[in-house]
Amino acid sequence: MAFIFSLSTECGTLLEDAESFAKHFHQISWQLKSGVESKCNTGIFQDSEDNWWVRVYPSGVSQIGITTPEDAYQMTEIGILLYQRLHSAPPFRYALVGVEVDEFRTYSELLSTNSNTNLNFSGLVLSKALWQEMNCPIGFRIFTSGYLWKPYEGEVYKPLLVSSELRDKLDELFAIQS
Question: How many domains are contained in the chain?
């Protein structure tokens, strides 16, 4: 199964807005510190609420998730580049970079979020209008003109999720304690 690392952005109800957003990212490329060239492709799709999304998926990254510290580093480097490009993007309502972030929340789900709830999404970018509609949830800072965000913390390598050997050692630890 493929785990897609992407920038997923909800652009609202107009297809034209999604097309303009996708064009801003399509075929943009970067040379990473590792020497790998990463080129962005885009896809447009509609969610269950008839809102348009753009997925920006860069090449040169793991398609099976974050299985090494190097994967996390490389995805974080690309994540930062995606957020830098997002600063000058055409209008959108909200966006997030990460592994498997397509349709991470629908528009109505975000609107129903309690303003005192801590939205636990590192890198979540909201239009100022949406942030206000959500009753100004806490923990957001200015991203760029008209947008706020939860600052991006990068991608994380979790060895216990990918190593059966380490999970076995942890199980042994709990077996000793029982």
Answer: 1
